[in-house]
């Protein structure tokens, strides 16, 4: 199968997020790419944790859940206001997201999530940016593709002016093909083409369903991304180091209780699903970012 052109995305369901419970592919047929399999997510081999750490992570998960619940009605209101704007309106609705009561352990954990590694090929933006947005996504998640096509380009000005850093994390939900895509993206990153590969996959994705991503497709995406050494790309995608990096991301996400994609933490604000750009802009600017 060759690389496809991007599609304009329809309005997805309200939460615009895919979770573990949606791994069955039988309900929604993808357009363009063939329908994928319903393989379960691979085990990440997370080790057993000391009881003290388990207690802290439990508190973190409860805190994240409380924050998401507190923000849910406000995010719905923002989307309603945005859709109600008159035709031709160019500005976002004037609204604010009131900071919810936050669990101290959850806040401390979120502050420690950014890696700020200058040599991280999976990150965009300066290591000293005041705002760090962490994105967990799966390459076969249609809502991740919607977000990458519709929203992320609108945040580029914040990256360009030094306000925002985006750090991508893998959360493999849809089986071996998702895992292989994550491994391939990491391999492309070793040749400086991580985000080009990321864009190639999401631009080619159908507007719904979980696409099949076969080995030939990964090679095609690598070519489109401009990966210079395809033999090295293939070798690196099978390396233990690359597999360990993807597993580390998955372990981190699951330890935080994240079970759906896309999912974001912007400094200490969690956002669930492919929210509109206006929502992300508001959170970025409330944390000191400037467009």
TrEMBL record:
**Annotated ranges, domain Thioredoxin:** 86-289
Pfam families assigned to the protein according to its UniProt record, in alphabetical order: Thioredoxin_4
The protein's matches in Gene3D superfamilies, at most eight in alphabetical order, are given as: Glutaredoxin
Q: Which GO terms describe its molecular function?
A: isomerase activity; oxidoreductase activity
The answer to keyword Methyltransferase applying to this record is no
Alphabetized UniProt keyword annotations? Disulfide bond, Isomerase, Membrane, Oxidoreductase, Redox-active center, Signal, Transmembrane, Transmembrane helix
Extract the SUPFAM superfamilies matched here. Answer: Thioredoxin-like
User: Could you tell me which InterPro entries the record lists for this protein?
Assistant: Thioredoxin-like_fold (IPR012336), Thioredoxin-like_sf (IPR036249), Thioredoxin_domain (IPR013766)
Q: Which family does it belong to?
A: Belongs to the thioredoxin family. DsbA subfamily.
Q: Under which name does UniProt file this protein?
A: Protein-disulfide isomerase
Lineage, highest ranks first:
Bacteria, Bacillati, Actinomycetota, Actinomycetes, Propionibacteriales
């Amino acid at each position: 199968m060759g690389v496809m052109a991007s599609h304009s995305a329809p309005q997805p369901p309200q939460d615009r997020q895919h979770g573990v419970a949606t791994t069955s592919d039988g309900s929604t047929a993808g357009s363009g790419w063939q329908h994928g399999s319903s393989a379960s997510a691979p085990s990440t081999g997370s080790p057993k944790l000391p009881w003290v750490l388990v207690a802290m992570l439990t508190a973190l998960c409860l805190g994240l859940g409380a924050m998401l619940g507190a923000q849910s009605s406000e995010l719905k209101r923002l989307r309603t206001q945005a859709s109600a704007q008159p035709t031709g309106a160019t500005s976002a609705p004037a609204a604010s997201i009131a900071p919810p009561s936050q669990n101290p352990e959850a806040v401390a954990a979120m502050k420690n999530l950014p890696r700020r590694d200058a040599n991280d090929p999976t990150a965009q933006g300066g290591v000293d940016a005041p705002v760090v947005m962490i994105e967990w996504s799966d390459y076969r998640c249609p809502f991740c593709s919607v977000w990458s096509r519709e929203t992320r380009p609108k945040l580029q000005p914040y990256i360009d002016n030094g306000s925002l850093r985006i750090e991508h994390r893998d959360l493999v939900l849809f089986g071996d093909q998702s895992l292989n895509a994550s491994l391939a993206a990491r391999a492309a990153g070793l040749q400086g083409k991580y985000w080009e590969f990321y864009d190639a996959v999401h631009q080619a994705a159908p507007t719904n369903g979980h696409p099949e991503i076969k080995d030939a497709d990964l090679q095609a995406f690598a070519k489109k991304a401009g990966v210079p050494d395809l033999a090295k790309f293939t070798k690196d995608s099978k390396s233990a180091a690359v597999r360990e990096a993807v597993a580390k991301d998955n372990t981190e996400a699951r330890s935080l209780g994240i079970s759906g994609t896309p999912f974001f933490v912007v400094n200490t604000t969690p956002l669930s699903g492919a929210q509109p750009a206006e929502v992300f802009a508001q959170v970025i600017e409330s944390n000191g970012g400037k467009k």
